[in-house]
Known about the structure:
Elements: E1 4-8, E2 14-16, E3 24-26, E4 29-30, E5 58-62, H1 65-74, E6 85-87, H2 98-101, H3 103-113, E7 120-124, H4 133-138, E8 142-147, H5 153-159, H6 166-178, E9 184-190, H7 198-210, E10 215-220, H8 225-234, H9 240-247, H10 252-269, E11 272-273
Parallel strand pairs: 1-5, 3-6, 6-7, 7-8, 8-9, 9-10, 10-11
Antiparallel strand pairs: 2-3, 4-5
Residues 32, 34-36, 39, 41, 91-92, 125, 160, 163 line the site of iron/sulfur cluster.
Amino acid sequence: xxxxxxxxxxxxxxxxxxxxxxxxxxxxxxxxxxxxxxxxxxxxxxxxxxxxxxxxxxxxxxxxxxxxxxxxxxxxxxxxxxxxxxxxxxxxxxxxxxxxxxxxxxxxxxxxxxxxxxxxxxxxxxxxxxxxxxxxxxxxxxxxxxxxxxxxxxxxxxxxxxxxxxxxxxxxxxxxxxxxxxxxxxxxxxxxxxxxxxxxxxxxxxxxxxxxxxxxxxxxxxxxxxxxxxxxxxxxxxxxxxxxxxxxxxxxxxxxxxxxxxxxxxxxxxxxxxxxxxxxxxxxxxx
Length: 287
Ligand code: SF4
């Protein structure tokens, strides 16, 4: 099914964040063609009258996002001028349509031109981020990261349907590191089967270190009802034992067991854990 692309106007794009370590978020798009099976952002469909089940099949392009961002930024008071700004919390800033619309790039250009002093965070699953290396070099305080959930390209393709292959993401991180950027990885969701196959997480952390990453966020899987429904539908054909592991992922014993594994492996690989703990706070998700 072709992705539905629709242009819309946005009043504001710089929005106060309730994520734990960022002040503002910017989402130039509503919807995300990467269509990850575990995506918590599928609730965003209610703002554009799209059913949750249709997540991944549409992108609403806020075509005036750069102008709106410039306006919003100008309205920040002097005290907020050092606030951290993050792209993006409920969409991927470098999904396919960005090649045409360049909204993420336009927003970054605004921040570069203003020599914006606050942290500018990027998180993506796309190698398209490399296109904007020239802008990142002109941004005062960039913080660039990629989501990496597995080193298995086939599993990545299954769960993160249209995102860049994991191997490509790792080589993208390597290129960003070689450019001198201090990169991070977002290991989220922490795939439940790592509990039973910790060697796979060991390999993942090792690959991150090889790619120049020194810091990670790690997040437990979010199994709110609407996410569980989509994810379990994706896993319909999976082996019963795999389905069972995922179905029982949102329990305290499971999280505790994984926390222990994560702590040991972070230590082994010398990786720093941002926020000092494995994230499990559903209420942090931006609405
Ligand atoms: S890339 Fe992020 S926003 Fe897009 S579908 Fe995947 S998890 Fe959701």
